[in-house]
Design brief:
Elements (H helix, E strand, L loop, with lengths): L14 H14 L1 H8 L5 H21 L3 H4 L8 H22 L4 H7 L2 H14 L5 H18 E2 L8 E2 L1 H21 L6 H22 L8 H38 L1 H13 L6 H18 L4 E6 L2 E7 L18 E7 L2 E6 L11
Antiparallel strand pairs: 1-2, 3-6, 4-5
């Protein structure tokens, strides 16, 4: 069995939600601990070691689990999405680390909620995921809260200005929103392989860029080791759980649950770094909480048509969409190319790999 449980529509319908929340908790560790490590490592090297830690740790775990036997591997058909994912995964953490040097970890953590809004908007306009009224309200509220956090109220002239650190973090969120939708198109394939490719592809590229840009190489081995470990937990395991959840929830809904990560980061920043919130921060925190609550309550049910679909992914035979027959019979999780016949039915659903129809 895989070291993180798999799920289907009927067996453990809450497992995708659990995986999305677990991914959020693990990524929530990123901002406060990265803020501490940035005093010893430059932003580009920081991004490199975070992703290299994710790839290395997942490669070790992948070799000692049976996931490779139950998950469909990546293929050359996904190469455009893989290359786009790697590029965005180099740019996003670099922007985040750069922004962290210019703002507080608590502020950065809360701003990361804008990733959910960016993911949902891109999923709606470019991939035609259904976005309901609650989700649009959530996007508007989170965007407003992000604008409040981005304003710099410390200007001695009495005028408002945008914080450079906050704008860099919002740019990172947009990059991750694009990257989440690239990953969405890979989510039926092996999550461990996706993390390994992300880790070594993005980490190796960031490392090479750091060397070419002449950034100072870290002199403290302990800082590098801690960054690699943080990368494995906050990026490797987090991305693994995120991809598993995205397979069943779609991009926008997974990002809604994933929006718990910034609140975890805020709490840790206040405890570990003793960063005291401003009135604007508290107002934004309340708005963010309201926006996330609306997003999580989004429901979607209508009569829909399934076209004939042929694809390859890990599955069971205990749901509405995997009723094909094996001879001899197969039990448990397995993967192979299979065909879904055309049908029309009504049931609550998410924009998962079987429900990417137009609205």
């Amino acid at each position: 069995m895989s070291f993180i449980p798999q799920t289907s529509v009927q067996t453990g319908k809450y497992m995708p939600v659990f995986l999305a929340l677990l991914a959020a908790f693990l990524f929530g560790l990123n901002a406060p601990f990265s803020k501490l490590l940035l005093s010893h490592i430059s932003p580009m090297f920081m991004a490199a070691f975070l992703y290299l830690g994710a790839g290395t740790g997942m490669l070790v775990l992948h070799r000692f689990t049976a996931e490779g036997k139950t998950e469909a591997p990546l293929s050359s058909e996904e190469l455009p999405w893989i290359l786009s994912m790697i590029f965005l995964d180099v740019l996003a953490p670099f922007l985040l680390m750069w922004g962290l040097k210019l703002t507080t970890a608590a502020n950065a953590s809360l701003l990361l909620n804008f990733e959910m809004a960016a993911t949902s908007i891109i999923a709606f306009f470019f991939f035609h995921e259904a976005v309901g009224t609650r989700m649009w309200c959530s996007i508007g509220i989170i965007t407003a809260a992000s604008m409040i956090l981005s304003l710099d109220f410390s200007n001695i002239a009495g005028t408002w200005d945008f914080s450079k650190g906050s704008l860099l973090i919002l740019a990172a969120c947009i990059c991750w929103g694009m990257e989440n939708n690239c990953t969405r198109n890979l989510s039926e394939k092996s999550p461990a392989q996706i993390v390994i490719v992300k880790g070594f592809g993005s980490g190796g590229t960031a490392f090479l860029l750091a060397m070419l840009l002449g950034e100072p190489f870290p002199h403290m081995p302990s800082s590098m080791i801690l960054t690699v470990l943080l990368g494995f937990v906050a990026y490797g395991l987090s991305i693994f759980c995120y991809v598993k959840a995205q397979r069943y929830l779609g991009a926008s809904r997974t990002s809604a649950y994933y929006a718990a990560a910034p609140f975890i980061g805020v709490l840790l920043s206040l405890i570990i770094l003793h960063e005291f919130p401003s009135p604007a921060f508290i107002l934004a925190l309340v708005l963010m909480g309201w926006g996330v609550w609306l997003a999580v309550r989004e429901k979607h049910c209508h009569r829909h048509q399934h076209e004939i679909l042929t694809h390859n992914h890990a599955h069971l035979h205990d749901d509405l969409h995997h009723q094909h027959i094996h001879n001899p019979p197969v039990k448990g999780w397995h993967t192979h190319e299979h065909v879904h016949e055309a049908c029309v039915h009504t049931h609550p659903h998410n924009p998962d790999i079987h429900h990417r129809h137009l609205h």
